[in-house]
Amino acid sequence: MYHLGTRVRKIHTSKRSAFQTIGGDPAFLILDKKIQKNLEHEYFKNKNYSPKINYDTQVTLVKYYPGFDPKLLTTIIELGYRAIIFEGTGLGHIGKTLYESVKKAKERGLFIGMTSQCIDGRVRMTVYESGRDLLNLGVIPLDNMIPETALVKAMWALGNTKNIDEMKSLMLENIASEITN
Amino acid sequence: MTEINLDKIGLRVGLEIHQQLLTNKKLFCNCRPLESDEYVIRFSRKLRATKSELGEYDPAALFENRKSKTIIYYANPQSSCLVEQDEEPPHEIDLDAINIALIIACSLKSSIFSEIHTMRKIVVDGSNTSGFQRTMLVAQGGYLDVEGKHVGVQSLCLEEDAAKLIKDKETERSYSLDRLGVPLVEIALEPVDVSPSEIKKIALTLGRLLRITKKVTRGIGSIRQDVNISVMGSGVVEVKGVQQLDQLEKIIEYEAKRQHGLILISERLRNLKLEKVLKNDVFDATELFRSCNSKIIKKAISDGSVIKSIRIKNFAGLFSYEPYEGIRLGKELGQLVRFYGIGGIFHSDELPNYGIENSDIQRLQKLLEISSNDGFIIIAGENSKIDFAIDSIIKRIEDAKNGVPAETRGTTPSGETVFLRPRPGASRMYPETDIPPLVITDDQIKLAKTNIPKSWDESLIDIQRKYALNAQLAEQIFDSEYLHLFEKICLDKRHSPNFVASILCSTITNLQRQGLNISLLKPEDVLKSFELLSTNKIAKESIEIIFESIMSNKAKSVEEAIKKSAITSLDETKLNMILDNIIHDNIKIIMRDGIRSLAPLMGIAMKELRGKVSGEQVNQLLEKKIQDLLLDKNKN
Ligand SMILES: [Zn+2]
User: When you count CB atoms within 10 A of the terminal residue's CB, does the N or C end of chain A come out lower?
Assistant: First the structure.
């Protein structure tokens, strides 16, 4: 089996089948000793592309847990980070205690994206009140992008633009199958 | 029995139209609205009535819940995802669908709400995996102009379509998910007191208003009409799923007669000051009927059913009292119990009959402690179902004293209506909490206003001009389900629009009139057939043969139809060979009748060649061959 780099996760520390595609089927299969395409769509959105190899590592991945200290977030902001990718609970939530820090981060022009700690599925922040609160604070739901992919994509996006609106549309644009249907 | 006077009974009819919208994706997810018979995914659920988030039970939900069926869903990943399976919350509302709904609202001059709130409407037949259908009230008010008269618009809603029913068995019901979530608009018109024929005109006008937007789908099931019918003093009866306009008139007439008939029955019941039927009027009569000779009763007992009887004092003659032809309380009760999977009832007015003899009746009257002045009902059914059915019978008899109960009814092919379920209560609706309210901007409304389509007449003239069709054919194609398909086929300039239109309008309709199943013929099949025609792979005549083969379920695809009906385009050598053989076999006739033999020979040739070669071509070739032969003969 061959997996898409944007969709693969290592789910076991040692087994042969340690790597698996999340939220879809493997991209290629070996059948009759031949590699066969298993994707229904194209890997890249555009067939012709010129690589933009810039990145900016001022991005961090934050896993939320009950009791998370908001000061940690304040410190990240003060350290000068430009983007935060949250790994929230369930459909994409973090506790109310972080709202103030999130607001501060937005005021400083940081990009804040939301992914889920759940292995599979999409974030959907219109279902519960806390999700809607976070949407109002300007947190961007990143559909079913896996957190590690979102982190790397944010570094790349930040490397190519410093404009927050451009960054947002880059993050939501499905470029290399990082979002699946 | 008298004839009914429709003008004097306060008949009021409100139309409700459901029309699928033509969008690239479904209303709450990215799935494409594709229909296919290939279902890779299968899962099953059991529905339970739960309190809505407002804490109330819906009576219709409880009613349906008593049947406790298993629901099986079939899905194709191309046309459905976790949203349809109710395993993922809905995504954003599709803007395209909203914008189409706004255009329709603007053409009806309705007032559009500045905020759209999604609601959940409880649906308990399993046609929605979630147990509810999402619906949004988009606009209210406005009117439809029907030849100068204004028919008021009550409301315009944007909704998700339900799953498609595949099978309905006693304990199990199957749906496919490809249609679930397809956007549709529901337009409810104000009830009006007009004749049934005028209602047909209103429906046609509304249908045309939708079609000229070119943003609605066509084809079987893409438009459905419900009618709310009431007469003076009746509750509102909703008749669901009127597929054809021609049926509409008949159904309204029937329903008016039924409702007024029920009112006449109620007057008679009230005059009699009958006692209320109670639980202690129900008796177990299984033992009593063990010796009965009725085949139906015998079968019921051997199947393990129980037989119960209800006594109704002073009711003799009331089950079969028939104020209008075919309108009887007995019939209503028979339909009612079918809802519980019970075949029917026997009532005292129709007995002795069906193998139930006088002696059986006398013994039953003794058990029930009643005389011939009183009425009774006999009902057989499984222990688990029968009490529900009996409760509903008792309630229905009580309701009969008040006239026409508000209920939802279905239609029969002969234009009658049958009981489906009670009318849902107001508690059927509650807010959808997964979707925030959507603000409609002034810009959106402005855009919708500029996109209001031309009038029906202008649109018709456009079509006439563009494809050089006559007015009649243009109207036919515009009113048919096939306008999109017609335009798509005509993109290939090799086709004659007149020919395409006549195949789509008359050939298919004729096959349908012969009793063939139109729903088996998919748009892809039609497209494919015309493609083969334009590349000369088949003859004009083959199209009808292919359609016939598919619509009669002899073939599942165009390819199979071609193979089965042995349609192949013959090469000329082979054609010549076949014709030469025919001439050889019939040489005597040719010598005797000369060129007049062409007609009978054509008949023989076409028997063999129908669909493979055009008649015209065979005629020419055959005529030449005969002429050559006669010429040779004269030379000699
Ligand atoms: Zn879907």
Answer: N
Same domain, B127 and B253: yes
Contacts of residue B555, defined as CB under 8 A and 6 or more positions apart, other chains included, come to B546, B549, B561, B563, B564, B565
Cite the DSSP H helix spans in B383-455: 383-400, 442-450
Domain membership flag for residue B449? no
Domain count, chain B: 4
Residues B526, B590 within the same domain? no
- The answer to whether B354 touches B290, Cβ cutoff 8 Å, is no
Q: With contacts defined as CB-CB under 8 Å, which chain B residues touch A127?
A: 89, 433-434
Q: Which residues of A touch B435 (CB under 8 A)?
A: 126
Instruction: Give a yes or no: residue B446 inside a domain.
Output: no
Q: Do A45 and A176 meet the contact criterion of CB atoms below 8 Å apart?
A: yes
DSSP per-residue codes, B308-335: EEEEETT-TTTSS--SSTT--HHHHHHH
Do A127 and B89 count as a contact with CB atoms less than 8 A apart? yes
A181 to chain B, any CB pair closer than 8 A? The answer is: yes
Is the domain of B239 the same as that of B373?
A: no
Question: Separation of B85 CA from ligand 1 center, angstroms?
Answer: 8
What is the per-residue pLDDT across B341-387, written as a single tens digit (0 to 9) for each?
788 899 999 989 999 999 999 999 999 999 999 999 999 998 877 88
Q: Which regions of chain A carry the CATH code 3.40.50.40?
A: 59-172
Q: Does B24 touch chain A (CB under 8 A)?
A: no
Distance from CA of B136 to the nearest CA of A (A): 17
CB atoms within 10 A of CB A73: 25
3-state secondary structure labels for all residues of B207-270:
HHHHHCCCCECCCCCCEEEEEEEECCCCCCEEEEEECCHHHHHHHHHHHHHHHHHHHHHHHHHH
Q: Residue B54 pLDDT > 70, yes or no?
A: no
Mutate to test the interface with B, among A38, A40, A116, A127 (most CBs of B within 10 A): A127
Q: Is B30 an 8 Å CB contact of chain A?
A: yes
Q: Which fold, A59-172?
A: Rossmann fold (3.40.50)
Residue of B nearest to A181 (CA): B30
Does B497 lie in the same domain as B390?
Answer: no
* C-beta atoms of B89 and A121 within 8 A: no
User: What residues make up the domain containing B616?
Assistant: 572-635
Give distance in angstroms: CA of A148 to centre of ligand 1: 26
Interface pTM, i.e. ipTM: 0.85
Residues B75 and B163 in one domain: yes
Does this model's pTM top 0.80? My answer is: no
Residues from chain B that touch A121, judged by Cβ atoms under 8 A, are: 82, 88
Q: Calculate the CA dihedral of residues B55, B158, B420, B222 and round it to 10 degrees.
A: -150
- In the stretch 374-433 of chain B, residues with CB closer than 8 A to chain A read 433
CATH code, B285: 3.30.1360.30
Over the stretch B85-107, which tens digit does the pLDDT of each residue have? 999 999 999 999 999 999 999 99
Q: Is residue B309 part of a domain?
A: yes
* One domain, residues B99 and B245: yes
Contact of B88 with chain A, judged by CB distance below 8 Å, is answered with yes
In a domain, B288, yes or no: yes
